[in-house]
Give the backbone structure.
Amino acid sequence: QVQLVESGGGLVQAGGSLRLSCAASGRTFSAYGMGWFRQAPGKEREFVARITSSGGYTYYADSVKGRFTISRDNAKNTVYLQMNSLKPEDTSVYFCAAYPAGSGSYYRTTSEYPYWGQGTQVTVSS
């Protein structure tokens, strides 16, 4: 089992920045790839970004590419999402999730992530 706890959400004006953190406990953190998803009211949970278990590769949704950066610190068992140039449409609950390295293929769907945090609210005002 992997337990995940997000933090860092809040209210920010459009154009501002936030950094989300996700602390992991349980199994060996470096054996898991990590992802961030978000879910707005009335919408499906959508992929935002992911990072491989070693941190060597990162992938982003087109909607956040160039504005968001995912990173991880395996020594601290933590993954981060730096969000810059925030827009009102970024308003969502943000979830971090984990997948065992090599367990899937695309890693952009919720079904590929067996472990989830409880989410943290991000609200961007216009």
